[in-house]
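Task 17 of the worksheet. Students: predict the tertiary structure of the chain below and write it out as structure tokens. Keep your answer in the requested format; marks are given for formatting as well as content.
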Amino acid sequence: MPSSISNSEIESKDYYYHENRPIPDIHWKPAMFLAFLLMTLGLIAWEYNARVIWGYEPEAYIDNNGLWAIQRRLIDQGNENTVAIIGASRILFDFDLDTYESMTGTRPIQLALAGTNPRPILADLAKDEDFKGLLYVGITPGSFFRNGGGISAEAPEYYAKESPTQWMSQQISMLIEPHLAFYDLANWPLFTLIERIELPNREGVFDPRMGVWELSQTSKDRNTKMFWKVEDDMEYQHKAQMTWRGFMEMGDKRGPSEFDLDQYLAGVIKDVDSIRARGGDVIFIRLPSSGDYRPRENRLQPRAEYWERLLKDTQSIGVHFEDHETLQGFRIPEWSHLHSEDAPKFTAALIPLINEKLIEAGKPGILQP
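Model answer:
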């Protein structure tokens, strides 16, 4: 009897019908050669675009969680003379490791992360019994005094849970990165390059070209300098400035988020005390800013209410660029980070001030005899 929900007249073989598609009779070796040739030409064009048109220097490394984890593991050695740096991108750009090493004899471990609140990393180091050294904390008011960790807040977790496969992938990638400019997929993927084609935008549409472009170049140990186009190409520099302005405007539209400064500082005090209990110390540094950033920071995070209280509550040494003429007058092309030629000069001016404050506090200085 026929079923009400199926057709019993269809033979079972119809359910397993398979059509054999004939393979075209072509010469596969020439076809493979042509495909390889086209791929090679495409990669050459991509590399040419990155090097010649955009001016990217492939001697740098991709600054990602894997590269950060390599530096973070250096602390596991438990050296009491370790010097580490945490913060957002300002201290990453502005603090020159070569200059610090030449003046103090110690090369710092650079753990600052762009666009990231250093608070989670401070907490991570506070819990790490291996860290017994000197910690510099770069203060970018909008990045430090806020809720949330930022774009790379997961870096400590990545370091703690990095798998052998992830570790090996990072090692292999680092063999390629200094030689191929287009390999930095964060900045040179094809779809991103397409988005950056100069086309007029409709009114009210956010310009996709206003995203963060290439701003820096990073060495193997994360010594970072500003990308030359931000410094010398005025159109490129303007795009960076307009990106920051766009972010500020979006933040102003959202309005201030709830932030409990008392509770926040209580956590900072606890972490600083934990580091000092092991014989280490913490120094806070307020890096320069200009343009639209500086008045906005002064308005949203007034110095007396935030910076001065941070130093008072944690009983810490702090260096603020506004207090010292030697830390002023440097070029800040896009309002937030120092020119690559000025970062070593800024670091050279900063170190004696830190040394002086340490000695005034009855602590050992950092300058070589």
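Marker's comment: Residues 57-192+211-360 form a domain with the Rossmann fold fold (CATH 3.40.50.1110). The radius of gyration is 26 Å.
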